[in-house]
Queue: 3 jobs
Job 1
Amino acid sequence: MSTKIKLLWASALLSAAAVAFAALPEQVAGQPVTSLAPLVKKVAPAVVNIRVSQTVSTRSSPFGDETFRRFFGVPDEREIASAGSGVIVDAENGYILTNHHVVENADRIMISLINEDSLDAEVIGSDAATDIAVIKVDPTNLTDLPIGESDDVEVGDFVIAIGNPFGLGHTVTSGIVSALGRTGISRNGYEDFIQTDASINPGNSGGALVNMNGELVGINSAIISRTGGNVGIGFAVPSEIARSIMRQILDFGEVRRGLLGVTITTIDEESAKALGAQVDSGALVSNIEPGSAAEQAGLLVDDIIVRVDDKKIDNSLELRNSIGLKGSGEEVNIEFVRDGETRKVTAILGQQSASRSGGTEIHPGLEGAQFASSSTSGTDGVDVTEVEPDSPAAQRGLRAGDTIIAVNRRAVSDLGELRNIAQANRILFLLVQRGDRQLMLQIR
């Protein structure tokens, strides 16, 4: 073997050894370890497998003949089943955190403990915008997992993921935190994901992302994959968000999301230069609702918000996420630029109304628009109250002042009906009333 080949082989061995040693921390809870088994034994009993069943109507026969269906014994309904994961966070009361999409529309929920005991569960509350749900079981012989501070998580921290991938049962994988503050994954909700390369597969949804102190730092929620399997890019809802949503559900029976009360536009370097503003990014306040938290805090139209609670704000989506992930009544510190001077105020957030909604909460193609149930007496529909210039909603032809009266040939009377239809379809055909005429807009 030549000297050059020997050196390359030795280099490869050293690289492999470095990767192997990097795969495990040197200590857990201050003690040297060569295995994650002690940690897994401690936390795994708090993770449950979830089985969900749902009854759905059977589609009519190809011939549309009820007699044909009855002759061949085609049932009117059928039961479908799915699997997911959950984390016991309050053993005394039997509360379990999981994903909204795991238990959505469930008729029956069964959870399995690590000892294979099965329990019936009920949904206490759920929030589609953050993909967090709280379910409850009989609090007997349960083990819970302490909720850690996800704000203290750093890129490079070792983590383990525990869940029920592909319905196999309790499965443990390990990795590191790959990135923080990820957005733009679902675009229909409020996002601030922890990204990890710990293997997450279908069925892991709702499971635990755990730090080396045995604390819950995230609820596994989504993956990026072309095949549906793990490719090393998984996302978890931070524990701080999950805890806030759970607290609101348990305290109020619903999620009371914070509201600043502003209409905003993204500021980039080009638009900042046009305004003569000494910023490279931010969110420009273009409108303030009377009596809102923003008005009471002293914000004005033309202010450029650049930070919320020391977190940099680069665009309108980041501001929306920062505010929407907080509860009503919470205090937020807002840093903004006015007349070239950086200022700070503290705002006490109001509460979002169920009769108002942002486009990203409804459909990706409606991003940049704000909607409200029609305020015109005797008129059903959904008003388009604001449309951000050059946004997806603007590019598809929506204008402020439009009223949506039907979607995919189904009449809509309020925001709830618009949201239900939009979230079930990738392509939307909006019948819009604009002044004294109607027009049809296609949204993808």
Note: The first strand starts at residue 27 and ends at 28.
Job 2
Amino acid sequence: MARLRFSRSIRLYFNSIDVPLFFAVLAISIVGLINMYGIANGTGPLFVRQAVFVLVSFAIMTLLSFFNYRYLKNHSLPVLFLYIFSLILLGLTFYSRSIRGTNSWLIFGDLTFEPAELTKLFLIILMAKYFSQKHVHIYQFRHIVASGLYFIIPALLIINQPDLGSTIVLGLIWASLLLAAGINKKHILTLLLIVSVIAVGSWSFVLEPYQKSRVTSFLDQDSDPLGSGYNLIQSKVAIGSGFWFGNGLGDGSQVNLGFLPEPHNDFIFAAFIEQFGFIGGIALLGMVLLLVSRIISIGVSAGTNFGKLFSIGMAVFIFSHVFISVGVNVGLLPVTGLPFPFLSSGGSNLVSIMAGLGISQSIKRYG
């Protein structure tokens, strides 16, 4: 009898959520663990820790799928609390120990947490809430300014950590939701002009020397092959060595011999291609596109503007990380240090994305 009730509960659960999205997440999570197993040379601490992160984040996604997202849509106080909480966490990073020259993490013993990842999710929630309320009046420039302030405050904290990659993703999320909400075309030109001025000013007064070096080495990757251009060159070598079908699980020479820097984080896509080849890379990106398309599909069928806008924000969150990470690994973009969702080690990005996917499933469930 108990088994029958359990079976019925499982069936009812899958009838209420987006099943393709659930299994796309499951598949890419398993692929990520297999890839990490090969990079970590078996069941080492790196693999075990990542397996724990996957299990915890999957549980968070499942639990949040039961949470009625309309609570966030209808109540401003909890949304504002999440936003302010993320700002407090970002502020605390400046009092934490620096790792590789940046103050992006909060450190708890052997564990680290990157608040910028959670900030991306909370900004999506806040912007979806704001624009769904102001949708009719979005043509008024004051609403663009107000939403811009919500974006600029965390962006300034993140760029000063310094973390250029997360700042760019935060900007893409804000810009995409602005466009989705129906911004006036004249205002788009004004914003582009403002962004251009900020970009020029940032190069002169904000970016650190090592960040400028990443850009210049990207533009001329062969100018300093043993210095600033080393990472990109080794990444392309690893990708090339994988050829069509890869060298096999755990048999990537660039990883095993220590030539590929940060194979479990910044250059994990190159490590993946080295193991599973071009065909494996296409399959991986296909799973990502399926996942993103299901999020957009949920948004299209959502019964509220909040649900539609949140879905767009989540799609941009995931896709921008993948696009930038792949672009960096193949040498088409400067090194930014962004994680590849579901593949890179660590739990900050994974938990934040899985929490967002849980809300996406809630939108599917409650309409």
Note: The CA atoms of residues 52 and 347 lie 9 Å apart.
Job 3
Amino acid sequence: MDSSQPLQTAAAPVPTTPTVKPTRQANRELRALIARIIAYAVLTFGALLMLLPFFWMISTSLKPERGVFSMPPEWIPNPLVFQNYVDVWERTDLARGIFNSAFIALVTTVGEIFAGTLAGFAFARLRFPGRGTFFGMLLLTLMIPGVVTLIPTFILFRGLGWIDTWLPLIVPLLFGSAFAVFLSRQFFMTMPSELEDAAKVDGCNFLQIYWYIFLPNAQPVIATLFVLGVIARWNDFLGPLIYLRNNDLFTVPLMLANLNGGYESQWTLLMAGSVIALLPIIIIFIVLQRYFVESVTLTGLKG
């Protein structure tokens, strides 16, 4: 063997031990999964807790009169008394009440949407002196409780001869509301200014921009105002109670309130009527739920 040649030695491989320690990414994903499961559990529990009064209302509407205050409480009535729905429909003329409530709710809500979106468009897109001041004063009216202005408005409508008519319940809302203006203004501010600029180049004035450009794209805010407006007018009890005297003009809340007398309360009929009155609101909300959620999301993007 030649001593001049260098000795070549192979380096021994270094033994490696596999690590089974979870990575930070896995730990984060695990914590996020646990947090999501806890959040869903809490929300599910809260939703069921909120639905308990509705379950109890439906249960009571199907009970006999003697079973309303039975102890322990019965969640599943035995026997089921569907006659309560027939009785409340016949005794209270609920069909007329539903028509009256629907007419007032639809007319006032449509007028509120038109006036509110028009004013909201003006506050969002037009430049005029005192715009911020006027909008701030408008928002201040949201802080005033309705009962504060109840007596002055009653005196005003009595002087106009509007008592025992639907006019006090309809006319004021045809000019919009502060909440509708605020929600519309917030939504219109999120729309790109390029739409407005392109319409001006085509020769559109501000009314045409509002009607042909902004209003067709305002479906989410319109759906939200429609849902909230119909629910508010449908459930209104104080207004009809103060201004209406004729039974033929009564809305659903007033007709159901007549079931509570001074000496007797017909709880089964009251709950059955409440279930019937609740169905249109549930249907409207289910149909327009997607637009409702979209509007609540978009109106908070830009102030």
Note: The chain has two domains: 25-67, 83-298.
